[in-house]
Amino acid sequence: MGFFWTIVALVVVLGLSWRYLGSYLAAVFDGRVHFLGPIERGIYRVVGVDPDREQSWQRYAASLVVFSAISIALTYLIFRIQGSLPLNPQHLGAVPPALSFNTASSFVTNTNWQNYAGETTMSYFSQIAALTTQQFVTPAVGIAVAIALVRGFSRHGASTIGNFWVDITRCLLYVLIPIAFCFGIIFVAQGGVQTLAGPVTIHDHLNGVSQTIPRGPIAFMEAIKQLGTNGGGFLNANSAAPFENPTGLTNFLSIYLVLVLPFSLTYTFGKMVNSVRHGAALLAAMVIIFGCWVGYTSYAEHQGNPAVAAAGVHQSTGNTEGKEVRFGDTSSALFGVASTSTSTGSADASYDSFTPIGGMGLMSGMMLGEVTPGGDGSGLYTILVFAIVAVFIGGLMIGRTPEFLGKKIQAREIKLAGLASLVMPLTVLVLTAIAVSLHAGRAGPLNAGPHGFSEILYALTSQGNNNGSAFGGLSGNTAFYNIVGAIDMLVGRFAIIIPALALGGALAQKQPVPASVGTFRTDTPMFVGLTIGVILIIGGLTFFPAVSLGPIVEQLSHHRFF
Amino acid sequence: MLILLRRSVVFAVVMMAGTLVYAFIGTGVAQLFFKNQANGSITANGSTLIGQNWKSPAFFHGRPDDAGPYATNLAKHIPGGDNPLVANGVPGASGGTNLGPRSKVLLDNTKALVAYWHAMGVNPTPDLVTTSASGYDPDISPADATAEIPMVAKATGIAPATLASLINKETHGPELGFLGASYIDVLQLNEALVALEHR
């Protein structure tokens, strides 16, 4: 019953946010929100940006790529010299080079894959200035790309798609920082830790044990970790650690924060192209797939754990291995699907210990390219790519030049959409093949049998989709996985962003074609179905052979243990 | 290109400064209004949010997250399986065992835990033979606590009915009535148990 009301509450708060936050986001990017005007203008002056000068897609992309490269370099530098920097009460030394490179790539690509344990590796300065900074900046970059692509549809005969610096500054000042700050306060009030003092040692006189408990500036990082679909926690256990996610309420708010921007951006899209129906059509495609995934994953986790059953324990509470008592099985499954269907990757349970089908529910959210609803901005621009492919297929079926929102979809657009939708499966599957072919790759998994393969597949899928969650048994902090993972993350981020911006540039130049009776409508249930079909075919069919070697074999291995 | 490089560096540095300000203001607000929570919910005998390794049968036990009295058979080399945080001393990394649902190691561990509980006179619930995701789950469910009553009653001499009503009193419902699950904080439960003994 509790789970039912959790879903009802989630639908209500997300529905309201979709309408009102979505509309507010459109106002922010149209430049109609000014309440922090002096700070905004101050940033433009310091950085040397003329906010009224717009950029072509090439200049937009160049700004984004150079800025990201600089961010990786600075983040890397902080890890390497953290021993000499302030805010380091545990006197932690420099992070090793390969791990620093992997982590810098991970946080700058919005992945937040963590080959380290936060509480024993990162100083408070690194956690704040390197990691939390990127948790603010990268969702702003993702949303900026999505908005630039939407401008491709909303503008006619234009040579520019906005100004990168202005878009990310507005997103940070008017959206991410205020919302994260408010939720940070709630997290602290519920029990989240927020201190700059170091670990504390206490002695329990009842029990006769001493504990040294790591602390830190956790709660306010937690808020942007979820809102920014980042997922990289302060502590190794991520959202399972009570200091990050103390109660059922913060767990619910985490799920809400993860989903709110990706869903709301579909309204923003509808509003910016003057057709909320088109936004609602994308939302419907997202919600239908997301709903199915929540359904079967929570059902799978509500079944028992095979090992516990084989040990002779009667299970009435679902799979409890790797789950926290205060959340329970179904809420943990809901959190997992929300986190992996967006590009978040935070975890309030041990995903490695999910049932085979539950674990597949987490993987499949990522394998569809993270569009249900996907990451902040990345969900919208990726589903728009899929929608263009769907329009193309629809156009082929009726024998007309396809159009989307009045813009003709021609060879150049289809090539770009094809590139953007195929680069992720290609990278992930090739790298997985390499990893299982090499000794260095096969040395990674903790578990034996098909679950070991799942751990490798999960890791490369997660990084290629900039998710960052893990089947945590994999020993990722090796030269092989640090380097291969970094390549996976960088390709998975920028090889999709650049074609998406190029699409925006190409579409913005076009003049609209007036709709006629023969126009294939793109705001109907028929089109929603077609888009879902494209998403499932590209994601589902390309990954099905790999999935059948992992979770499906594992599920079918009755009474066998590896 | 040079302008772009300079702009990128300046913007990145401005963002780092901005995030430091965000974290400092956040810490200020947290320390001013929610001092106890912000510092880790520390009470006289430990944090109510961090599980401990309860050795004596005169106390209710938490989940078998660490290498405590249960653990002679728990695999030693599994990350998180031996949680140094709880076992006296150095701060360690949190985390679960990450054992898959068809892992032989998990099966063996679970069998060992079942045997451990049976020796203590407890017929274990699933929570009591599985580890949590954090590695220091501070809570158990009301059913778990109820299953431990025979052990605690025998060691303390308190009547099972009294323990059952204590468990009832210490049970927190799901947040707002529907978010998450019912739980009992083991540290608070044991503090209440000690208060009961000294009355």
* Proportion of residues in β-strands of chain B: under 5%
Name the overall outline of chain B.
Answer: elongated
Q: What Rg of chain B, in angstroms, do the CA atoms define?
A: 22 Å
- State the largest interface: A-B, 124 and 107 residues
Report the biggest beta sheet of chain A as strand number plus sense, adding barrel if it closes: 2 strands, antiparallel
- The beta-strand count of chain A equals 4
Secondary structure: helix percent of chain A: 55-70%
- Helix tally of chain B? 8
pLDDT averaged over residues of chain A? 95
Say how many strands of chain B there are. Answer: 4
Taking the sheet with the most strands of chain B, its summary is: 2 strands, antiparallel
Strand order of the largest sheet of chain A: 1-2
Question: Which overall shape of chain A is indicated by the principal axes computed on the Cα atoms?
Answer: globular
Low-confidence runs of chain B: 67-91
Instruction: For the largest sheet of chain B, list the strands in their spatial order.
Output: 1-2
The proportion of residues forming helix of chain B, as a percent range, comes to 40-55%
Order of helices and strands of chain B: HHEEHHEHHHEH
Protein traits:
heterodimer, A: 562 residues, mainly alpha, globular, B: 199 residues, two-stranded antiparallel sheet, 4 strands
Structure description:
- The complex is a heterodimer of chains A (562) and B (199).
- Helices cover 64% and strands 2% of the residues of chain A.
- Chain A has 19 helices and four strands.
- In chain A, strand 1 and strand 2 form a beta hairpin.
- The longest helix of chain A is centred in the C-terminal third of the chain and has 32 residues.
- The model of chain A has no long low-confidence stretch (mean pLDDT 95).
- Chain B contains eight helices and four strands.
- In chain B, the strands form two sheets. A two-stranded antiparallel ribbon of chain B has the order 1-2. A two-stranded antiparallel ribbon of chain B has the order 3-4.
- At the A-B interface, helix 1, helix 2, helix 3, helix 6 and helix 7 of A face helix 1, strand 2, helix 3, helix 4 and strand 3 of B.
